[in-house]
Amino acid sequence: MARYSSAIGTSFSPLPKSNHGGISRRAFVAVMVGAGGVRAQQPPAEDAWPQFRGNPQLTGAASSSLPGTLRLLWTYDTGDSIESSAAIVDGVVYVGSEASDLVALDLNTGKLRWKYHVNDGIGESSPAVHDSIVYVGDLSGTLHAVNTRDGQSIWKLQTGAEVKSSPVITGDRLLVGSYDGSLYCVAAQTGTVHWKFRTNNYVHCTPAVSEGLTFIASCDEAFHAIRISDGVEVFQVASGGYNAASPAIVGKAAYFGTFNNEVLGISLATRRVLWRYEHPVRQFPFYSSAAIAGGKVVIGGRDKFIHCLDARTGKAVWTFTTGARVDSSPAISGGRVYVGSNDGRLYVLDFASGKNAGEFNAGAPLSASPAIAAGKLVIGSQDGKLYCLGG
After folding, report:
1. Residue 176: what pLDDT?
2. Of 387, 390, 338, 381, which is closest to residue 110 (Cα–Cα)?
3. Whole-Å CA distances, 62 to 59, 170, 359
4. Which positions of the chain have pLDDT values less than 70?
5. For residues 168 and 125, what is the distance between their CA atoms, to the nearest angstrom?
6. Shortest CA distance to 326 belongs to which of 280, 290, 376?
7. What's CA 266's distance to the chain center, in Å?
8. Quick check: 302 and 327 in contact, CB under 8 A?
9. Domain 71-331+366-390 is classified in which CATH homologous superfamily?
10. So what's the pLDDT on residue 69?
11. Staple 370 to which of 102, 189, 239, 331, CB 3.0 to 4.6 Å?
């Protein structure tokens, strides 16, 4: 039976049961705004989720507020597993799947606008949208630039191995990692390579951008700071573990998890580790990328927990237990945390307390991350279904 937090003014109607013990796909209720809840805010003029984690700093913090009550608006079947997280820009959803398609869907209706086919599947690389071009990498190692209007190819760049990293746009340049061990910086309009930064292992993570530098937590167990203008490494910090998660940047600090069962806070000013967090009992890798807001770090773990940490000290604020590992990266909006789990549920948690404020049962693992824009949340599942939730 679905559980709801009564501590924050929950209001809901009776719901049909699903076969998985949670809320059915046709009914999903999150917290209602009440005296103890978070009041809805007017969305800003720029209301979009144009890339993985929502912005180049990879904070996972949405500018859009979601309704107090969410319901399933539409579902689209891509035909194969979705591990790519969606982008939402100008009323269009872009997402890739292992059916080897990048699709563009109408955000309001879920109707297909166009479909762009690649040679191999699209894995965890999530689309990035900028200046009427959508970019995505595939498992053959090709980076694609596609016209958002008609789904026609603009250019392609072949890297030396699969691309699971998500593209990030900064100015007129695009940054993306490859399993050939390199971080690529290319001209966004033409695909011309400006430089390649070589690491000692795969570049699985998505690069973060701040103040003229790009940051990667590479699989070579190091956190690298690289100058965007020329590809020169400014500094690196040993992480002490294999890194697949993407770093989130806020101010002069970076945050990410490792396969050494730790979450790290790193000072960009002193170029040293600020703190290391490890759960005192359950030591499991962190594959999820962190979300940051209000001085707190929220991250999923393969220990089945969602962890909330104090960004200054790394001390645990709260943990929430799901039914399976959490590879999905959380999104934060309006005082709530939204995150998928491999138990097939999308969880809505109160950001302050970590209490369960609602669940949506997709019935298949949710390792992709939520995208939030225009009052709607979009997330894909490993059975190939894309879900849109809204008011």
Report:
1. 98
2. 387
3. 9, 19, 19
4. 1-46
5. 11
6. 290
7. 20
8. yes
9. YVTN repeat-like/Quinoprotein amine dehydrogenase (2.130.10.10)
10. 83
11. 331
Q: Is the dihedral of CA 49, 55, 58, 63 positive or negative?
A: negative
- What whole-number distance in Å separates Cα of residue 76 and Cα of residue 85? 14
Residue 203 CB-half CA count within 13 A:
29
Q: What is the pLDDT of residues 141-200, one digit of tens each?
A: 999 999 999 999 999 999 999 999 999 999 999 999 999 999 999 999 999 999 999 999
Read out DSSP for 194-261?
A: EEEEE-SS---SPPEEETTEEEEE-TTSEEEEEETTT--EEEEEE-SS---SPPEEETTEEEEE-TTS
> Would you call 71 helix, strand, or coil by DSSP?
strand
pLDDT at 16: 32
According to DSSP, the β-strands at 376-380 and 371-373 are antiparallel
Alpha carbon distances (Å) from 388 to 20, 72, 118, 278: 20, 6, 24, 34
CB 77 within 8 A of CB 383: no
pLDDT the model gives residue 20: 34
160 Cβ neighbours under 8 A, 6+ residues apart:
141, 178, 179, 180, 181, 182
Q: Hey, where are the domains in the chain? A: 71-331+366-390
Rg (CA), the chain: 19
